């Protein structure tokens, strides 16, 4: 028998390395009991394994709230007269149009029922949506395949009954085509299959005590036995939508039944996070989370509509909930890069309300954007009062979680974000294990999963803190977030971190808190502001000038007290005074020896002299010790100096680093000040003597004021080895990318933590420069008004290879809002200080003439979330049918749109009416790709003469000499470019200007070509004087003009008259103008309207004799209309008209020919209108004759008539087809109706599909939307008559998705 060691289960979710495991073993009742942890994430699945109960038997998840609004359902009251009470049920119309049956025993004293709908797929996480769509498509295909088989059998049967193909009648040919088209339509339908999923009918009512909801999760409409749900926190109820999806959900109802919130998860991330913090497995303690006794509040901030991206609205609502619920701890494993630290609406809420006022210990992930410095994210690494957690990989994790071949040294993960923040704060508070294999939602069809990241280290730390808080509560020891933070920093385990950040230690921290429980200074936070650094929280020297001189800084320190009652708070402030000793641990910093600090705060100076420091990273802290306490330091002032290798005025362009030694997880940082004018860096790495691949990361960052670190970040992951027997042969990795001149760049090279073995790397750095108009990067503006635009390129550093080209392939348009509205939000959006959040809804409209990739931007609002001045931003793009095409947030993204008309609604949330008023005219910017072949290429010339003469285009030599300045003359489109159709006054064309022969990862320059609307030169038509006209003709025209005006006025009044007045005037006009075409058309319209009215009466009639009278009347009117149309065709002379349109006409025409063309165009328009009515009349005759055949036993004559009408209809349709576009809406509908009447459903469906699919949803415009909807409606009736059940159900669901009654909710 094979012997093996016991599986290291406890390392699947590491607790030993933080002392958490030993702490709970020694103190079983301090396992998080009595604590509540809020999880701000994708949502926590309320039915996930390990998250049902706490270790002491309490409900684990006690609140489940969707803060994003992604599960919201707008509700409408059912009119009282629509509520029907039956013997066994209450019947109401659902919002989907379906009749819903409700249980009569449900208490509803007001008898008010509210209904709404939600597309189930809108609630699915992305991965689940993909899985379910694939599974459902397979099931649908089985039903569809049965229809295919039947269609094929019908064709085979017809073939066997018609073996003589040479003598087929026209009717038989049409029958054969119809069967073939049925098969063709089925294949086409499946080709365009896009599963809409289930539409959930929702019913909400008040039972006299609380609001309740019922959701039709099986789609039957019968809700009598359905589970009635309360708000989750009332009974902890949850359901799953189905066995196939395994997605659990709960509900909340807001604002007196106005909004139903269906709470689901947007991904598995939040469940995994919650399980790390506090999962409890009674039979498998090794799988427990860090604090199994803690309870959970799940606050969903990841919006399902955005694929789990957080939104400002979700964050703000989560902060509001934290202030209301007063949780002990909160974990947020989310974050983004920010432009400025410690500012922004959400950060202010966290710092001032959630932490300082409510007292919640807020823990957040530092970010996964390392290994370069200054990559910690917001809010974790950038916000005062928030505990920022980096990710650490412990020895036990390497075997249990990662199955490594051998263990490597414990350390922070390579990708874990590092400090300092842009304002000099440390950026990471503490480290914790950053990986775990634990519970995930059932919809994943897995019980557990490995995830790693600071998203995992943060809940591990939060669980550790829950243990500490549980112990403090059990011992009645008061605590504050500030006290806890100081303790875990003081007692953390050293991991040789260059910024003195350690690994959290639970027992040590708890003992420290017990030891210093009476020291009130531990409950005070100290706000540090450096005057010379824009009130930064630390000193951060990163520029080459400051790194080579002595600088004096003014430090402002002010104590911050926890918010309590004003009386107590003022007394604390009054009594506070600390005698502080300031200590610098390095010789290059001077600071005062002592400081007496009280509530008013103090300022003092420090001097930093980095001139003698070596190049690289230098970090230290000025420590403030309370001379009357041992709980020290009281506060710290971080100081970071980045000293580049090159010196001031050193313009070295090439740097070489040989024999750089790496082992698993090693990081080497090179800091260089980019030379003046340098705008490109070329890096080359080579590996020697490796037989296996080693995974490396090259991470490069430059920092600019008021810019997120991501603005000038480049990161590359790659593998290096050397498999050659010849050591002289080396594998190379080379990249070139833009840099900012005269700015310190960090080149951070790391061997990935799990990449085994030693490596020997050489590293080369080369700087390049090619300037355009003396600019190192940015937009180059060309103006259409100047025709020829002059540029100058130069190479100020070294000889450079050039390869110049530019294709303007993007059209940028500025769109002003068509509507703006400011209103108050509802109860979920009232801030802790009772201020109501307001919303500004801006509406924009735009049109695309071609399909395009489109990016919608709002530059002053994009990319700001944690550091935003407003509380939220959300965007929805709708088509002309109000269907949602795309959702948008702070990050502008590319959307693929078909041609058509679109509406954009932008929601901006703010507590400030002034802010919203200020931006209510905000311009929307649309960048759209030009279709292939319609790009505008820029032509370059060496001199102005060549440009004007369009000769010798080009840019000269492909080598730009050192310090050479070369003029170029650019003409977009070489003067012949055609403007895009969407061009407006402020439009621009843009494209990348490729200039260097180096292969750049990102463009240096973009050309922006400023345009105005195209001035189209009208083509002049030479009008020859018609010599056939004379003075007598002109005189006759004048005499007839009055008579014609009276006639036209009388014809126009026919629309307004009825009964005898109409008959009398029409009779007079027909006598006087028997062949006047507009009069004939008007009579056809009158007859057509009469037939339509009679048809409506027939539909309503229940009397057989009355129906027969109406049928006869319809038939007579149809015959009269057909006769009138035939007469019109004679008057128009269709043969002559056909001959005219069959000829090619010269552009040079006489005035009489011009009039003839106008007359013939008008005749054709009249003819089409008449033929439409004629074919429609035949359809009506066929229909009523079919009714007569059914209702009359002696129907031989009717059958003969029916056959005759069908034959005449076929001929009329051919005539119509000859003049009409076969994809025309009117023709399509009349043809489809006729084919439906005669049972040729395949022909009808083929015509309808051609029209519908040629006008897809994204292609719709407001002018044709009703036509498409009517075509879809007719298609559904045909599918129902064919009994294609699966496609009928599909079409009904698509109708709801395709044609919503109103614009979808924003938030």
UniProtKB/TrEMBL annotation:
Domain Peptidase S8/S53: 32-493
Record-level GO cellular component terms: cytosol
Residues of the active site: 41, 269, 455
The protein's name: Tripeptidyl-peptidase 2
Family: Belongs to the peptidase S8 family.
A GO molecular function held by the record: serine-type endopeptidase activity
PROSITE patterns: SUBTILASE, SUBTILASE_SER
């Amino acid at each position: 028998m094979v012997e093996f060691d016991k599986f290291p289960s406890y390392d699947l979710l590491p607790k030993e390395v933080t002392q958490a495991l030993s702490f709970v073993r020694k103190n079983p009742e301090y396992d998080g009991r009595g604590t509540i942890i809020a999880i701000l994430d994708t949502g926590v699945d309320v039915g996930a394994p390990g998250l049902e109960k706490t270790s002491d038997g309490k409900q684990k998840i006690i609140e489940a709230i969707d803060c994003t609004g992604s599960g919201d359902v707008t509700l409408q009251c059912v009119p009282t007269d629509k509520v029907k009470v039956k013997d066994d049920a209450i019947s109401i119309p659902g919002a989907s149009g379906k009749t819903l049956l409700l249980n009569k025993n449900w208490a509803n004293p007001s008898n008010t029922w509210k209904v709404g709908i939600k597309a189930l797929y809108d609630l699915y996480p992305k991965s689940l949506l993909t899985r379910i769509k694939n599974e459902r498509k397979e099931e649908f295909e089985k039903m569809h395949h049965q229809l295919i088989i039947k269609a094929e059998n019908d064709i085979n049967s017809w073939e066997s009954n018609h073996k003589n193909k040479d003598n087929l009648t026209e009717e038989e040919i049409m029958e054969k085509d119809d069967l073939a088209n049925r098969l063709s339509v089925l294949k086409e339908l499946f080709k365009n299959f896009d599963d809409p999923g289930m539409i959930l009918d929702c019913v909400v009512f008040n039972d006299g005590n609380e609001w309740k909801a019922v959701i039709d999760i099986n789609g039957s409409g019968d809700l009598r036995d359905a589970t009635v749900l309360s708000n989750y926190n009332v009974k902890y109820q949850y359901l799953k939508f189905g066995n196939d999806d395994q997605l659990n959900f709960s509900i909340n109802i807001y604002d007196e039944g106005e909004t139903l919130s269906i709470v689901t998860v947007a991904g598995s991330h939040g469940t995994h996070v919650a399980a790390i913090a506090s999962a409890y497995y009674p039979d498998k303690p090794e799988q427990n989370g860090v604090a199994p006794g803690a309870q959970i509040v799940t606050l969903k901030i990841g919006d399902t509509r955005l694929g789990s991206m957080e939104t400002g609205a979700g964050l703000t609502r989560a902060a509001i909930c934290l202030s209301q619920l007063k949780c002990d701890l909160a974990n947020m494993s989310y974050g983004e890069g920010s432009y400025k630290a410690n500012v922004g609406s959400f950060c202010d809420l966290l710092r001032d309300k959630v932490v300082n006022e409510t007292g919640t210990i807020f823990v957040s992930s530092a970010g996964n954007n390392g290994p370069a410095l200054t990559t910690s994210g917001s809010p974790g690494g950038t916000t005062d009062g928030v505990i920022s957690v980096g990710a650490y990989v412990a020895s036990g994790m390497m075997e249990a979680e990662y199955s490594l071949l051998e263990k490597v040294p414990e350390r922070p993960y390579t990708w874990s974000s590092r400090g300092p923040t842009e304002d000099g704060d440390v950026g990471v508070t503490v480290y914790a294990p950053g990986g775990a294999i634990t519970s995930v939602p059932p919809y994943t069809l897995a019980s557990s999963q490995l995830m790693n990241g600071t998203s995992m280290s943060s809940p591990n730390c939060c669980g550790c803190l829950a243990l500490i808080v549980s112990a403090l509560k059990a011992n009645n020891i008061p605590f504050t977030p500030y006290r806890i933070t100081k303790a875990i920093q003081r007692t953390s385990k050293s991991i040789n971190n260059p910024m003195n950040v350690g690994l959290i230690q639970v027992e040590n921290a708890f003992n420290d808190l017990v030891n210093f429980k009476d020291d009130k200074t531990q409950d005070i936070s100290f706000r540090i502001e450096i005057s010379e650094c824009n009130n930064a929280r630390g000193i951060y020297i990163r520029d080459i000038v400051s790194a080579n001189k002595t600088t004096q800084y003014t430090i402002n320190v002010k104590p911050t007290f926890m918010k309590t009652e004003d009386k107590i708070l003022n007394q604390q402030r009054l009594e506070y005074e600390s005698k502080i000793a300031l200590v610098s641990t390095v010789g290059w910093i001077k600071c005062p020896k002592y400081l007496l600090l009280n509530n008013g705060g103090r300022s003092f100076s420090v001097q930093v002299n980095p001139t003698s420091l070596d190049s690289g990273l230098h970090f230290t802290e000025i420590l403030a010790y309370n001379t009357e306490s041992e709980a020290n330091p009281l506060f710290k002032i971080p100081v970071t100096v980045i000293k580049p290798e090159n010196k001031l005025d050193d313009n070295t362009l090439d740097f070489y680093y040989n024999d750089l030694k790496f082992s698993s997880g090693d990081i080497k940082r090179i800091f260089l000040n980019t030379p003046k004018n340098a705008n490109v860096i070329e890096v080359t790495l080579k590996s020697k003597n490796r037989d296996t691949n080693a995974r490396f990361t090259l991470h490069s960052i430059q920092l600019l004021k008021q810019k997120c670190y991501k603005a000038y970040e480049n990161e590359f992951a790659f593998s290096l080895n050397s498999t050659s027997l010849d050591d002289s042969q080396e594998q190379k990795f080379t990249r070139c990318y833009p840099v900012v001149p005269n700015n310190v760049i960090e080149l951070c090279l790391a061997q990935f933590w799990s990449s085994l073995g030693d490596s020997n790397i050489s590293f080369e750095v080369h700087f390049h420069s090619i300037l355009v108009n003396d600019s190192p990067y940015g937009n180059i503006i060309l103006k259409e008004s100047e025709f020829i635009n002059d540029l100058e390129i130069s190479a100020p550093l070294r000889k450079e290879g050039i390869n110049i080209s530019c294709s303007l392939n993007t059209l940028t348009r500025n769109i002003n809002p068509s509507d703006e509205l400011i209103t108050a939000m509802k109860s979920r959006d009232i801030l802790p200080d009772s201020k109501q959040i307001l919303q500004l809804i801006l509406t924009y409209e735009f049109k695309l003439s071609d399909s395009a990739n489109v990016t919608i931007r709002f530059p002053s609002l994009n990319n700001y979330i944690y550091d935003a001045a407003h509380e939220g931003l959300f965007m929805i793009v709708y088509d002309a049918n109000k269907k949602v095409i795309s959702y948008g947030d702070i990050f502008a993204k590319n959307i693929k749109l078909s041609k058509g008309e679109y509406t954009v609604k932008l929601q901006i949330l703010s507590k400030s009416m002034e802010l919203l008023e200020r931006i209510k005219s905000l311009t929307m910017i649309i960048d759209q790709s030009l279709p292939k072949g319609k790009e505008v290429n820029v032509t370059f010339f060496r001199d102005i003469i060549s440009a004007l003469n369009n000769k010798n285009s080009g840019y000269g030599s492909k080598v730009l000499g050192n310090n050479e300045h070369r003029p170029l003359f650019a003409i977009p489109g070489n003067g012949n470019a055609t403007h895009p159709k969407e061009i407006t006054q402020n439009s621009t064309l843009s494209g990348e200007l490729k200039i260097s022969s180096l292969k750049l990862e990102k463009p240096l320059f973009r050309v922006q070509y400023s345009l105005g609307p195209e001035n189209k030169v009208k083509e002049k038509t030479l009008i020859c004087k018609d010599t056939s006209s004379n003075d007598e003709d002109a005189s006759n025209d004048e005499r007839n003009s009055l008579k014609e005006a009276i006639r036209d006025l009388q014809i126009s009044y026919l629309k307004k008259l009825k009964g005898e007045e109409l008959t009398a005037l029409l009779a007079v006009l027909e006598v006087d103008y028997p062949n006047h075409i507009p009069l004939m058309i008007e009579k056809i319209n009158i007859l057509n309207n009469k037939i339509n009215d009679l048809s409506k009466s027939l539909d309503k009639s229940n009397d057989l004799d009355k129906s027969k009278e109406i049928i006869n009347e319809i038939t007579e009117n149809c015959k009269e209309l057909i006769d009138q149309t035939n007469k019109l065709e004679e008057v128009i002379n269709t043969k002559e008209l056909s001959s005219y349109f069959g000829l090619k006409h010269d552009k040079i025409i006489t005035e009489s020919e011009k009039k003839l063309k106008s007359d013939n165009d008008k005749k054709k328009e009249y003819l089409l209108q008449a033929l439409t009515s004629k074919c429609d009349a035949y359809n009506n005759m066929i229909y009523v004759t079919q009714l007569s055949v059914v209702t009359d036993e002696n129907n031989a004559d009717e059958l003969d008539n029916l056959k005759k009408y069908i034959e005449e209809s076929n001929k009329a349709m051919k005539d119509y087809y000859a003049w009409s576009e076969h994809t025309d809406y009117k023709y399509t509908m009349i043809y489809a109706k006729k084919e439906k009447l005669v049972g040729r459903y395949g022909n009808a469906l083929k015509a309808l599909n051609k029209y519908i699919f040629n006008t897809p949803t994204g292609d719709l415009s407001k002018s044709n939307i009703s036509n498409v909807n009517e075509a879809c409606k007719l298609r559904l009736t045909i599918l129902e008559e064919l009994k294609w059940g699966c496609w009928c159900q599909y079409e009904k669901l698509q109708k709801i998705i395709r044609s919503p009654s109103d614009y979808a909710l924003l938030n």
